[in-house]
Write a structure and sequence with these properties.
10 strands, 287 residues, 22% strand, 4-stranded antiparallel sheet, Rossmann fold, globular, 6-stranded mixed sheet, alpha/beta
Length: 287
């Protein structure tokens, strides 16, 4: 079942000016309910426009954006409700923190939803747990936190609204490997427990291979391909034609195969590569 759909959506920036540009061109894509979908494409492919259309920050020039089967612009007066149902975490969300404490920052969204204090408290603590924020941090100023902690607090603020669709634009940008694992691992735990829909925009093919259930590729404002990570990354030439690449570990394993090492194909994550090399090592030591 699809929770979010784009039906022949086009979007133009700077309409009526010399800078008018069509960012999306009759785009028709859908996002399945209850899975993590990676949204990838080269710079300028339309990814940011797609996610801003999802929560009503932009309105299609043509076509429809459907949430749960209904046009989100069916009643423009209710577009605010859509923004509670579709949570968008912008790139570098830590720059949006502003409250006196981490707790109050995470609680900001639920308070604006008109929830009672008990429900707000539950949501704040649940969201903090998903992103790895301990209770003692909730009482601290967000400006006293490390960069990674600020990022987690900002993401928790959107999770606390319990949106049907959670969209994250480059959530691990600028983080070291440990920070990436903490952020993306927390998002995956959140999705697996809640079984809601998560869309992750990323330039990291490694992250997409590891965390996404499905991947949607866009190019020049249109759908290029969609499928599982294995289906997408099995065709390196196709990805290369739109300025993308397979994960680096895939290149390593392909090179080993060229050198005569009997590794199997279809390896797209470091964990799978490790398991494959351990398998070969085990077989060799048994001889």
């Amino acid at each position: 079942m699809n929770i979010l759909e784009y039906n022949n959506v086009s979007y133009d920036y700077s309409v009526g000016t010399p800078f008018e540009k069509r960012a999306l061109k009759k785009l028709s894509i859908s996002f399945e309910q209850g899975v993590i979908t990676g949204l990838i494409g080269h710079t300028g492919s339309g990814k940011s426009t797609i996610v801003q259309l999802a929560c009503g920050l932009l309105r299609p020039t043509e076509g429809q954006v459907l949430l749960g089967g209904r046009d989100i612009w069916e009643d423009p007066k209710k577009i605010r409700d859509v923004r509670f149902r579709v949570g968008l975490v912008f790139q570098y969300p830590e720059y949006q923190l502003f409250e006196e404490t981490v707790y109050r920052d995470i609680a900001f969204g639920p308070k604006n939803m008109g929830l009672d204090e008990a429900e707000i408290d539950r949501r704040v603590r649940d969201a903090a747990r998903f992103v790895g924020i301990d209770d003692d941090i909730l009482a601290r100023s967000p400006f006293d936190l490390s960069g990674g902690q600020k990022r987690r607090a900002a993401i928790a603020g959107v999770i606390a609204m319990e949106p049907e669709v959670l969209i994250l634009d480059e959530p691990a940008a600028g983080l070291d490997p440990r920070g990436r694992e903490e952020i993306l691992g927390g998002i995956r735990r959140y999705q697996r427990e809640r079984r809601n829909t998560v869309i992750i925009v990323s330039h990291s093919m490694e992250d997409m291979a590891r965390y996404a259930d499905r991947i949607t590729v866009v190019s020049e404002g249109a759908l290029f391909r969609t499928g599982t990570p294995a289906e997408i990354f099995s065709d390196a030439a196709s990805l290369s034609s739109v300025g993308l690449d397979v994960p680096q570990i895939t290149h390593v394993m392909l090179r080993l195969a060229e050198l005569g090492v009997p590794v199997r194909g279809g390896i797209y994550t470091v964990a799978d590569a490790r398991d494959e090399l351990m398998r070969l090592y085990s077989e060799r030591t048994k001889k």
